Amino acid sequence: MMRFLTVVVLLLSLQPANSQDVKDTLLVGYTSAPPFLVTENGRLAGINSWLWKRVAKDLDLEYRLVPMSFSPMLDSLKAGNIDVSINPLTITSERSKQMEFTHSFYASNATIAVAELSSFQRLLRFLQGFFSLNFLRGLLALLAIILIFGFAGWYFERKQNPGHFRRGWRGIWDGLWWSAVTLTTVGYGDKAPKSGFGKLAALVLMFTGLLFISGLTASIASSLTVNQLNSNPNSFNEFKERAVGSINNTSSIQFLREHFFKDVHAFESVTEGLRALNKNKIEAFVYDEPILRYRIQKDTSLNKVSVLPIKFDVQFYAFGLAKNQIELEQAISQQILEIMETAEWQIVLNEFGLTEL
User: Which of 105, 128, 143, 229 is 20–30 Å from 196 (CA)?
Assistant: First the structure.
């Protein structure tokens, strides 16, 4: 009996120690986000991987890497099911209510990726811009003026000038022809009014034509200019009416919705979104610039996708920690600051083609 009690006491004394060992092993979640986290031949590399390994070594942290999708990783971090996320998480006020953030180690911005249009698509956009609503309205107004003044010219001239303005339907056609060449300032001179009212109608028509044709030309030029801007936009506002994609549960997609983008598509990964863009399922893909550029550069199937020279929504990257890891966050933040002050950090950034803002 005494021997049994001794064994029980020993087991009970060992149980807390084993629990503590398990608890001290940090669960570190991550998802692929090149160039910050790159999975190569089953090994994790990239800027964030290097930074985390350096921090864990300096602080003597025991950890286990847990590969996860982006949205489940954030949910697990908020729920405390994992301790740390080493992805380049953007610091936002909403996320700060549900998790802790280390000191920021990199500042970036969002940008827009678009797919190169085919020749047929460019032709369609040109025609859409040319035959815009304003242009069609102007064309109808032009036809109305030709009809009104053509009929008036024929009516005033049909008796005094039958050689130029014949009677019946042929005379009405003569009037329309005269009205068209006068309105467009071509003025062939084959038909000319002789009556006083006919000359007065011609005078009004000439001045009307001078003003109207100038306005119509400006309208066409404006439509074509807008079409050109839509094909080569220089502001993210140009995409508010188009189908635009981004990563689900990120600050980028939140930015799009807060700024009234009307057709926003959520994707689970950058690769999925860029492939949808490449297949013209969406017209633009919005996400962090360094990640977009790295993906496009490394994936040869995306050779028709390019990044526009647009920068907006500045973002600060940091590691995320569960809310109950405040002391750990402070220790990691201090270590990150010390690493960032070294020349080695700049070398790592340069290796992946990044520079600090």
Answer: 143
